[in-house]
Amino acid sequence: MAFLKRSPWILHYDASSCNGCDIEVLACLTPLYDVERFGIINTGNPKHADILMITGGINELNRAVVRNLYEQMPEPKVVVAIGACAATGGIFRECYNITGGIDKVIPVDVYVPGCAARPEQIIDGVVTALGILEEKRTKMRGNAQTKEEARHAAGEST
Amino acid sequence: MPKRIVVPFGPQHPVLPEPIHLDLVLEDEKVVDVVPSIGYIHRGLEQLVQKREFTEYVYVAERICGICSFMHAVGYCQGIEHIMGLEVPDRARYLRTIWSECSRLHSHLLWLGLFADGMGFENLFMRSWQLRESVLDVLEDTTGGRVIQGTCKVGGVRRDIGQEKLDEMHHTLDPFEEQCRDLGDIFLNDDTVKYRLKGLGVISKDEAYALGATGPTTRGSGVAMDHRETGYAAYGDIGFKPVVETAGDCYARCAVRVKEVYASIDQIRRAIDQIPEGPLDVKVKGTPDGEYFSRVEQPRGEVVHYLRGDGTKHLARARIRTPTLANIPMLVKMLPGVQLADVPVVVLSIDPCISCTER
After folding, report:
1. Fold exhibited by the domain B4-358
2. ipTM beyond 0.85?
3. Do A69 and B148 touch (CB under 8 A)?
4. Measured between alpha carbons, how far is B209 from A11 in angstroms, rounded to an integer?
């Protein structure tokens, strides 16, 4: 991807991580990495967000919270699971309160490896997510167009 | 009497990267009661001791919290070493101190940034985190990890810092301290910061003591209690004096942390000056049989690792009391009387680490 077409906004949620990945997500937004210069902003409101970044695995209490956040986000949306815990449960997978990775509850588009994931890897994950977001947008637009054409054709025939 | 309403704060909230849920009972804009509820990050790490060998559990202990991870490892290792009667070599004790203080530096700078963000002081937030990156560079250079170090093990440490690197660290401490003092100067003397923080969320010395709170949160109220005074690792050799403020408000708690940044730099300098040559670890033979309360001072306060071994390679029980859990009762006492708009600042002033709290 040579340049960013849009300014994607990020919603970050800590499912049950150890904080390691969370502070690395924040480190991406602050000087040295500073993705805000590309217009990537960390928002607190799910209705404003394009990309959902989740760290940590799913436990009994946060299952509903994660699903709720995901459902509140408008389409098209992309989910990035950050760190080993978000992918599989990681080092905590044998804990009695951990169900597993984020994909047990919501569909995940990009998995970022690492424990803790490095800021470079997280930024790489976001850039991959942007490509997927663009694909989803085109697909949505295509679907809308097909529907419009179909309606038009139906209107002409009657 | 005005009508009371309940406003939920969290679990997903823009101010905190971590989920904590508070039910705030309000009369107009004023908080009159607070009901905290936790459990959003509970994993059940204590039970993992029965599935991991006691030497492997260090990795899990490090991941109790990603911010003070090194100190958790030190606390756990010191407990096992005490039960098994292992004598840790001097150089390892000094290296543990250096890495612990580096962790404290990065944790306090992280908190100062988040606190500035909570106040709406974006510029200060970015400056704090910029300084924090230079600490992380040192950690990455010496341990290989930015936030999870993995260098502490039962019986010593896994890696050495070469003399050349130690000299370089010593050399960079002066300009780093100067930058920290510039930053601290804003936190301590800026009018907007003072206006926002002074007299907010006041807790008296007696209250802080009675509530059993710990760390900079109590030291801001004048309780001179810091576990580093007992001289674990190399603190006994290099000397230590706790930083204490007496006002008990958010400004005092912030001032304690700013001054602890300066103190940590001083500790690292002294540790580098005095570090002896020698081996890095001792051989671990046998299995732990017995119990011990291991206590370590983290950036947020005192953490207690209770460990009990029954002579097998798996511990029978581990119990971890983390500082934020001890500080939540204090938070519940601080919030009534505060305006709703000040709630994020007051919550941040105890430096909540929910990942530690819920384990």
Report:
1. Cytochrome-c3 Hydrogenase; chain B (1.10.645)
2. no
3. no
4. 39
